[in-house]
Specification:
CATH topology of the largest domain: Quinone Oxidoreductase, Chain A, domain 1
Number of helices: 11
CATH architecture of the largest domain: Alpha-Beta Complex
Radius of gyration: 20 Å
Order of helices and strands: EEEHEEEHEEHHEHEHEHEHEHEHEHE
Helix content: 25-40%
CATH class of the largest domain: Alpha Beta
Shape: globular
Number of domains: 2
Strand content: 15-25%
Bound molecules: zinc ion
Structural class: alpha/beta
Largest sheet: 7 strands, mixed
Length: about 350
């Protein structure tokens, strides 16, 4: 079978690999769609692989499809089940965070994550689930389209971030960043009863899309001369927002959130993964307003179930988030090297 294998910075190859076979405790999923994640794009653009990652590696950690083979001892799933496969949900060692149900911060998780750690991911027609018992595999209801289901990795990052933040019904919020995670956060906050949602982004042409996701206001943070004043003006208040969500994953956005957007005593929820040093933040400049920080990371199986249930019930929907579906052969060109301007989420359909 064909597989998309990353070798290094700028080096993603489509090559032949043997089709996997399920051993004891394993199963094989025929991939319907696999998402091209921002993390995959960072690997391609910057190299900079984490120490737990084996390279070369077949990418793809946002996988969904149908079970086509189950190995000996696998009882939770059968051939024909529609599933999505996320990061490991519970480590074999049953570490302390896992015991508390906080599997997203499992101390053993990452090396065992397909497409990110040591195991091949889903940029291929078939994915081997190496350890069914300890991998996050969530059944996809029949009436949920795979195209919606496969967005779990993006949407559940935002959903988890909102769920563990201090957000309460009626709060005024700012979402900084209007990529897939920021857009998801906007819609989730609107569905959760936010009073006013102010989106900060750097691409004004996205304003109609951002508003279609539920933002009440859009500010171009690059062009706005005094962000703090603009937010207070919108809110009709002498202070900023109750909760501010950093979803852009960079320190310019983080500094905006801390210095310009959050009210004294409010919360900054850091949903984006920021890989830059925090040297533009001077704690003495903001400690006087006692902000609270909540860093958030990925999601749990519960978050994924909530997402699927709410999509099924029509309470959440993410139209126009998938901007293109490409074949494996076209994935490097269309998904990495020459992405169309304005593209948000690109999926690979290995059957094309
Ligand atoms: Zn991802
Ligand atoms: Zn664990």
């Amino acid at each position: 079978m064909k597989a998309g294998v990353i070798y290094g910075k700028g080096d993603l190859r489509i090559e032949e690999k043997p089709k996997p076979v399920a051993g004891p405790g394993q199963m094989v999923v025929e991939i319907k769609y696999v998402g091209i994640c921002g993390t995959d794009m960072e690997f391609f653009r910057d190299g900079g692989f984490p120490p737990f990652m084996k390279v070369p590696l077949t990418l793809g950690h946002e996988n969904c499809g149908t079970v086509v083979e189950v190995g000996e001892g696998v009882e939770r799933f059968k051939v024909g089940d529609r599933v999505l496969c996320g990061p490991p949900s519970h480590c074999a060692e049953d570490c302390s965070p896992c015991k508390e149900g906080r599997t997203n911060i499992c101390i053993h998780g990452f090396p065992r994550t397909a497409g990110l750690g040591q195991l091949d991911g889903g940029y291929a027609p078939y994915l081997l689930v190496n350890d069914v018992e300890h991998t996050m595999i969530v059944p996809v209801p029949d009436d949920v389209d795979f195209k919606d289901a496969v967005l779990f990795d993006v949407i559940c990052v935002a959903l988890h971030g909102v769920r563990i933040s201090n957000f309460k019904f009626g709060d005024d919020v700012v979402v900084s960043g209007t990529g897939p995670i920021g857009l998801s956060a906007i819609q989730i906050l609107k569905a959760a009863g936010a009073n006013r949602v102010i989106a900060l982004g750097t691409t004004s042409s996205k304003e109609p899309l951002i508003k279609s996701y539920g933002a009440d206001y859009f500010i171009n943070s690059k062009e706005c001369e005094n962000l703090g004043d603009e937010i207070k003006k919108i809110l009709g208040s002498d202070v900023g927002a109750d909760v501010v969500y950093e979803c852009a994953g960079n320190m310019t956005s983080m500094a905006n959130c801390v210095y310009e957007c959050v009210k004294p005593g409010g919360q900054v929820a850091v949903v984006g993964t920021i890989q830059q040093p925090m040297d533009n933040l001077v704690p003495g400049r903001f400690s006087i307003s006692e902000p609270n920080f909540q860093f958030t990371f990925t999601y749990t199986e519960r978050d994924v179930q909530i997402y699927l249930n709410m999509v099924k019930a029509g309470k959440l929907s993410f139209p126009n988030m998938v901007t293109e579906i490409v074949s494996l052969d076209d994935a490097v060109e269309k998904g990495f090297k020459n992405r169309k301007p304005g593209s948000i989420k690109i999926l690979i359909d290995p059957s094309l």
